[in-house]
Amino acid sequence: MVFRSSNITVDMDLVRQIEAKYPAFLFKQQLTAFVEGLYGMIRDNVKKELSSLLSHAIQVPRIMKASMVRGRSFGSSSLPRGRSFSNQGSYWQAIVDNVDELLKILQENCVPAIFIRKIFTQIFSFINAQLFNSLLVRHECCSFSNGEYVKQGLAQLEVWCGEVKTEYVGSALDELKHIRQAVGFLVIFKKFRISYDEIVNDLCPVLSVQQLYKICTQYWDDKYNTESVSEEVLEEMTTLITKESGQDTSNNTFLLDDEISMPISLEEIADSMDAKEFQHIAPPAELVAIPAFQFLKS
In what residue span(s) does the Dilute domain sit (predicted)? Predict the structure, then answer.
């Protein structure tokens, strides 16, 4: 279960009796605080479980290394149909299983679709940041084989998203654009023939010059012994980095930030909900037993 290890501290001030003077306003305040707290709890627990998996999912397991270096790939042709993936992608399969379990729990508890979409958008943004940042700071991850491995893992997530209704995942896949473009670059042959304009306009349009330079200078091919980009391309990147660093000192990091705010308001949730969806849903017995929640019976 995604939430079994959660330790939630309830602020009793949030559940105090509503004063009669401004009942609607105070209730809205309390409800907003509760929803924000619940959202943060779900987000933090999922991130905690995914973090350890992502640290392994960025790099090819050692047991796979020998067969891959000999030229045996693990692309879609070597995987069985459907979502029964081999042990080669066990970390990625665990990631897919984790988000799938989360979706089922949210659906079983009648969480509004817009709330679910926002959660998955932020979770996929977290996956993107964790994998991409690891790629930039860990030299051993910028290899051809790792590019193949991560690319196939991202394809598993894409398959899962394709099996889920759009109303639940929305455009969450778009949050993976940095890592998808980065690994797409890692697995391209004949990098030394690619111009700078082709890289920034066609291959990796969302990556900054600093990020591209880091990937290009760390790249190594453990499979085909191919070269990285040409010296001319690296020199052009160096010139642009120097120019940009002199103009803007506020944004000199190449790492992605992890968004932690709740990207949704209570009004958005309320506007998207239909009361008819909850007509046949029985309220929790724990709430019905409390006198203040007797209205749930009606």
Answer: 12-243
